[in-house]
Amino acid sequence: MTHKVKFTAKNSSGEQTLHIDLDHPNLEGKVGLTLLGDYRGDDIQIDFNSIDEKQFAKTLRFILSQIDEKGK
């Protein structure tokens, strides 16, 4: 399953999409992160190093806990 999150940077000329790949067969227990979009009319693709699933989940839990704290 790949989840896609769209972003627009303040200094960007276009929209970027972060692809979070949770079950790619070549990743063997890791999460794949790829940023796709355009910069000044040219397509860009940035393939980040994959992240261990447990570390990625820990990071997401931390982010969610910070959002929960802020909302109190």
Helices, by number, come to: 1
Order of helices and strands: EEEEEH
Number of strands: 5
Which overall shape is indicated by the principal axes computed on the Cα atoms? flat
Structural class: alpha+beta
Strand content: 35-45%
Radius of gyration equals: 15 Å
Based on the structure, what is the oligomeric state of the protein chains?
Answer: single chain
Query: How far apart are the first and last residues' alpha carbons, in Å?
Result: 33 Å
What characterizes the major β-sheet? 5 strands, antiparallel
Structure description:
With 72 residues, the protein is α+β, with helices and mostly antiparallel strands. The protein has one domain (2-70). It has one helix spanning 53-70, and strands at 2-8, 15-21, 30-39, 42-47, 51-52. Strands 1, 2, 3, 4 and 5 form a 5-stranded antiparallel β-sheet that branches. The longest helix has 18 residues, at 53-70. The mean pLDDT is 88.
What are the salient characteristics of this protein?
44% strand; 25% helix; 72 residues; 1 helix; 5-stranded antiparallel beta sheet; single chain; alpha+beta
Please write out the topology.
Layout: E1 2-8, E2 15-21, E3 30-39, E4 42-47, E5 51-52, H1 53-70
Summarize the structure.
By secondary structure, this protein is of the alpha+beta class. It has one domain. The chain is built from one helix and five strands, in the order E-E-E-E-E-H.
